[in-house]
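Predict structure. Input: GDSL esterase/lipase, 263 residues.
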Amino acid sequence: MRLCYSQLVSRHLVVPRRSRPAPLFSSSATPFVDSGNNNYIDNGPENPGNYKPFAQNGFFKEPTGRFSDGRIIVDYIAHVNGVNFASGGAGILSTTNQGQAIDLKTQLKHFEEVQNSLTKNLGDAETKELLSEAVYFISIGSNDYMGGYLGNPRMQEQHPPEEYVGMIIGRLTQAIQELHEKGGRKFGFLSLPPLGCLPALRALNTKSNEGSCFEEASTLALAHNNALKAVLTRIEHLFMGFKYSNSYFYNWLDDRINNPTKY
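Output follows.
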């Protein structure tokens, strides 16, 4: 979905067709791609990305809401033109970190606002062409399993793990379909990492005194990744013109955790 929604349309998008690169639209719930959108949540909690140590050694002179020292992945990809709707802490479900982040449903509403603005500025035909050429980068789901499920006993009582994964994947599939219906054709996905090996969830592993990975969380992440892989394979044949790349972030991080000397 694209670079910083707050910077928006006319400055970056109205360029000659021949020189215009494919724009990026980024929808996410991870701090890896949140460029500070949480600063715009009305009555939201204070954003820790606005304080040191963030940005102390990087591109920016002071913290910007990014959870990094400098620019993040989508800043580079969408430098020329793009909109980024990412919100650290957001979920596929609206109930995940409600009021503290911009959930996927709201991000899609923001995308629709951008689409309407593009149509007003560029016309219907050129907007459709631009949206079909754009790359839609989606990285979301971790928070639904961390705080949304493992940190929510009531949700665990209502939905066994397999059912919950199906519910998350179902909502995500609906979002992909909505973007496709609005003209999206090229998609990129970042799979979930081994959640149980993240520091916050290692602390939940009461069965170990050594801070080892919380396997229940990583099992959920694997189930999500496998289900998403199956869905993408299926809809590639159902959605006209749908193309995608699905990264294996789980494998990347898992190998670095288990074989740190290689890196």
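The chain has one domain: 9-262.
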